[in-house]
Amino acid sequence: MPAEKPGGGSYSEAVILVCAVLNALAAEVWPGRNIDKARFVELLVRLGSPPDELKTISVPLLVRRLDTECPANAEILRKKFLDFSKTRVVTGLDIDKTEGELLSLCPGLPPTVIREYSYARLLYEEVRSSYAHEYRTGEKADSWPMTMASGQSVSYVNRLLLIGTPETIRLIHFHIDWLTKLAVDLASYIDGISTTLPHPPPSKWWKDGSP
Q: Which of 3, 42, 44, 173 could, after both became Cys, cross-link 11 (CB 3.0–4.6 A)?
């Protein structure tokens, strides 16, 4: 069962509504077909507040990807940012970093690969898209927070995998209070610039490597 929110609604119901609002706002700024993911991510990284928060990279999820594709870089990042007990409960503020910080340690990593693990991209793929198609979070996310700390935007859920060699992994959780505020702030901002909309699509979207 998804986590319940005050007022009787569930996490799944809340994030479906919030992501629908974000989708609609992105379509108002950049209308068109077959650009849903690109403009959703673009909305968050260009217009989200505070600036650049949605560009933050999930270090645990990126390292897990690199474990299979580039173990040397995975080990560099693990030693630098994740050198503590796998059972420790952490938040995004504890361990997640900017693209620049990661590239300074692993300059050979393609920015497009790093950006796959940005909050904006993960929110689209692991929450918005996964709930739309499967009515649950994706394999990299969880609907239940593990921390009781207030005021968090992102935190992590420790999950023990028993298939094959047992291991503890971390799944990302997007806190609904933060997502709701994000949507409200974006709606207010876009309402204020409505007379200048729509915008033409960029020559290259942020998710594809635009600065």
A: 3
Q: Which two tokens stand for residue 188?
A: 């207010």
**Per-residue tokens: 58:** 């999930």
E strand spans, 53-163: 154-161
Domain locations along the chain = 11-84+96-139+176-208
CB 124 within 8 A of CB 137: no
If 0-12 CB within 10 Å is exposed, 13-18 middle and 19+ buried, where does residue 58 land?
A: buried
* Other beta carbons less than 10 A from residue 205's beta carbon: 18
What is the C-alpha end-to-end distance of the chain, expressed in Å? 40
Q: Kindly state the helix (H) or strand (E) to which residue 22 belongs, with its residue range.
A: helix 11-29
Over residues 8-44, the pLDDT tens digits come to 579 999 999 999 999 999 999 999 999 999 999 999 9
Residue type present at position 198 = P
Query: Which residues, at least 6 apart from 124, have a Cβ–Cβ distance to it below 8 Å?
Result: 37, 40, 41
CB 33 within 8 A of CB 175: no
CA distance 133 to 36: 14
Cα 137 from Cα 133, distance rounded (Å): 10
Q: Can you tell me the distance from the alpha carbon of 210 to that of 12, in angstroms, rounded to the nearest whole number?
A: 32
Check if the beta carbon of residue 123 is closer than 8 Å to that of residue 137.
no
